[in-house]
Amino acid sequence: MACLVIGGLLGWSLLHLMTPNAKDLDRTPLIVVLAVHLVRTLVVICMSGRDSNHIAYKTVPKDPHWLFVGPQFHALHHLDPDRYMSSVVKLFDWAAGTAYTLRNKNVAITGGSGAFGTAIQQQLRSEGVRHIRALKFGTHWTHHDFSRVGSALDEADILILAHGTKGPDAMEANCGSAIRLIELFMERRGRRQGRTAKTLPEIWHIVPAAFDSPMVCLLGSSGLG
Fold first, then answer.
1. Would you say which domain of life the source belongs to (predicted)?
2. Per residue in 36-86, pLDDT tens?
3. Distance (Å, rounded) from C-alpha 13 to C-alpha 22?
4. What does DSSP say about strands 131-135 and 202-205: parallel, antiparallel, or unpaired?
5. How far apart are CA 10 and CA 12, in angstroms?
6. Is residue 167 domain-shared with residue 87, that is, in the same domain?
7. Domain count, the chain
8. What is the extent of the structural domain holding 27?
9. CA nearest neighbour of 162 among 221, 90, 199, 108
10. CA distance 205 to 110
11. What is the C-alpha separation between 202 and 132, in angstroms, rounded?
12. How far is CA 136 from CA 110, 128, 170, 207, in A?
């Protein structure tokens, strides 16, 4: 409330400085604006702090707005107070680099031992992720055996699929295994007992340039939601 009143008064003062005949300005618009702010504040107080941009979520849902700030985007600001700071449009966060955060996220990554995967992990650590779990082919999973990968996905907030091959098993490695890992990730996420994540899970699938038949993978994964 105080910020809104101060902002209104500062705007009025600026208008006075820019207007030649400032003494002739009608103060009615200023009074109306301040009255609206006062009424709105009283309504929010009566609603225990809830308004159109303050909705309680167990898990913050996907933000449906690309430009304007809605309750989903603003809810993330309460999780990370130095991020998601825009109030009407997201231009400030885009310019300041505060429209997203990886801080305190748990990450599971495949293909992490390659040059690209190593670079991704370095960048993730610089962004403040809590933990990175590297899932190694042959150790945690194979093209036909994913029984040892499940527990590694239990704590993950983000699954990054950065593995790939140019060999004869390229279709199975680049597509089939990726789909199965995504399915396992979502299954394990849904079975977490007594734990509700505050944010939605994320899947980053980095499609290898050597993948020859992208439509097959897209069609095969169309039922994943």
1. Eukaryota
2. 878 877 776 776 667 777 888 999 999 999 999 999 999 999 999 999 999
3. 10
4. unpaired
5. 5
6. no
7. 3
8. 1-51
9. 108
10. 10
11. 14
12. 6, 23, 17, 18
Q: Which among 64, 83, 101 is the end of a domain?
A: 101
Q: In what order do the strands lie in the sheet with 202-205?
A: 131-135, 106-110, 158-161, 202-205
Q: Are 45 and 58 part of one and the same domain?
A: no
Residue 210 · residue 167 · CB < 8 Å: no
Tokens of 223: 């039922």
Question: What angle, 0 to 180 degrees and rounded to 10, lies between the N-to-C axes of helices 28-46 and 2-18?
Answer: 170
Q: Which residues contact 96 (CB under 8 A, 6 or more apart)?
A: 85
pLDDT digits (tens, 9 = 90+) for 120-170: 999 999 999 999 999 999 999 998 899 999 888 988 999 999 988 877 887
Q: Which of 101, 132, 161 is the last residue of a domain?
A: 101
Q: What is the DSSP letter of 223?
A: G
Question: Mapping DSSP to helix (H, G, I), strand (E, B) and coil, where does residue 202 land?
Answer: strand
Residue with tokens 């825009």: 86
Tokens 């150790």 locate to 139
Sign, CA dihedral 184-187-191-197, equals: positive
- What six digits make up the tokens of 207? 């499609």
pTM tops 0.90, yes or no: no
87 and 184 in one domain?
no
User: Does 176 lie in the same domain as 140?
Assistant: yes
